[in-house]
């Protein structure tokens, strides 16, 4: 049933994303509003934020445990389905990527930047970004966003149930949306800990779902590099797994200068296809674990 619940939640979530409905980040921001007031000088504190994430995660985990202990496991599945649908998802990305690719096709890089600047890291939103740097920054943001809102949730749901899934997703939400900005770097470090194993598992999946030979050349140290952050691991792995220089705009422009205007859309399409194939690998792996009785 774990496979069925996740598969149904994933399909519903993808449909909601295509309609730009039910933004989980909005739910987190409203929930975190409860911790918007702090005493002067305590803006970097993390206790309140952790409590707002740990509390619902603990309640969900406890409810799941009690239902399993009482032989009412089936009663937990509808709740898990609803929670997964709420915490997963990347609504808004589809439209942003479409208008970005169209602007790139026209050669209007200023318009492309205006459409995606809110999705770029704060330190990389400078209007002076070159087209190559802008595109790599957007690709990295897309990879990390999909990883944190699908793969990270899926991993911890399978490993430890819906409680751990909410906890892992909540740490990411704290790093992105906690009202007190000085505390966000500490939450970001915690979310990196939660992402360490699933990020490297997804890196391995990129090799299976993409160009294995290229992946082997590029990712010798990403799986074991303890200090490498999630975005570094995913970008290096994706670059090695994709053919046609999909994440190497400088090289692409040298080899295919006549096709430069099509690069933006083609590159993002390749990244999205790689992510979709990787999720298919995860679902098939989970199915095999269920069949073997492990999950």
TrEMBL record:
The chain crosses the membrane at residues 46-68, 150-172, 193-216, 274-294. Keywords: Kinase, Membrane, Transferase, Transmembrane, Transmembrane helix. GO terms for biological process: response to antibiotic. InterPro entries: Beta-lactamase_Reg. It comes from the Bacteria. One of its GO terms (cellular component) is plasma membrane. PANTHER family: PROTEIN AMPE. This is Histidine kinase. It comes from Marinobacter guineae.
């Amino acid at each position: 049933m774990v496979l069925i619940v996740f598969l149904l939640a994933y399909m519903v979530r993808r449909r909601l994303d295509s309609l730009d409905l039910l933004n989980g980040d909005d739910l987190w921001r409203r929930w975190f509003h409860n911790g918007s007031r702090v005493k002067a000088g305590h803006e970097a504190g993390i206790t309140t934020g952790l409590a707002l994430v740990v509390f619902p995660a603990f309640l969900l985990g406890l409810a799941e445990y009690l239902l399993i202990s009482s032989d009412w496991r089936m009663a937990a599945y509808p709740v898990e389905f609803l929670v997964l649908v709420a915490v997963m998802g990347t609504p808004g990305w589809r439209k942003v990527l479409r208008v970005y690719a169209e602007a790139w096709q026209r050669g209007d890089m200023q318009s492309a930047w205006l459409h995606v600047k809110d999705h770029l890291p704060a330190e990389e939103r400078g209007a002076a970004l070159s087209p190559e740097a802008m595109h790599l920054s957007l690709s990295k943001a897309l990879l990390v966003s999909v990883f944190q809102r699908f793969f990270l949730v899926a991993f911890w749901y399978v490993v430890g149930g819906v409680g751990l899934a909410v906890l892992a997703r909540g740490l990411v939400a704290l790093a992105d949306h906690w009202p007190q900005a000085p505390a966000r770097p500490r939450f970001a470090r915690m979310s990196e800990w939660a992402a360490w194993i699933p990020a490297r598992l997804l890196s391995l999946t990129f090799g299976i779902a993409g160009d294995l030979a290229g992946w082997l050349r590029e990712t010798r140290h990403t799986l074991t590099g303890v200090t490498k952050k999630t975005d570094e691991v995913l970008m290096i792995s994706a670059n090695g797994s994709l053919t046609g220089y999909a994440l190497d705009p400088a090289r692409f422009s040298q080899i295919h200068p006549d096709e430069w205007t099509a690069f933006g859309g083609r590159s993002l399409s390749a990244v999205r296809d790689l992510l979709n194939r990787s999720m298919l690998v995860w679902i098939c792996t989970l199915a095999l674990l269920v069949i073997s009785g492990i999950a």
